[in-house]
Amino acid sequence: HSAMRCLLLAPVALATSWWQEAKIYRVLVPSFQDSNGDGVGDLKGLISKLSYVHDTLGYDALIVSPVFEAVNTTDEWHDISNFTNVDPIFGTLD
What we know:
Layout: H1 18-21, E1 24-27, H2 43-48, H3 50-56, E2 61-64, E3 68-72, E4 79-86
Parallel strand pairs: 1-2
Antiparallel strand pairs: 3-4
């Protein structure tokens, strides 16, 4: 006589990752917030507005345009020449 084994699994609700329900704002750094008056948005300008973006506008996360050193800046800094350094026009990592 052979016994048949059966394992019943109850449906398990999978936890939702935070980003699946988050409101995400895309920031184009050069046009976002200029902190030094040169007419180009920069990292300090972005940092100065984080509370506003979260608390007032209600966003949970940011997607930030590239800010690395680039060979050609006419393509929104996508032609990156140095992945370890911020383009000086945007400030520094300090």
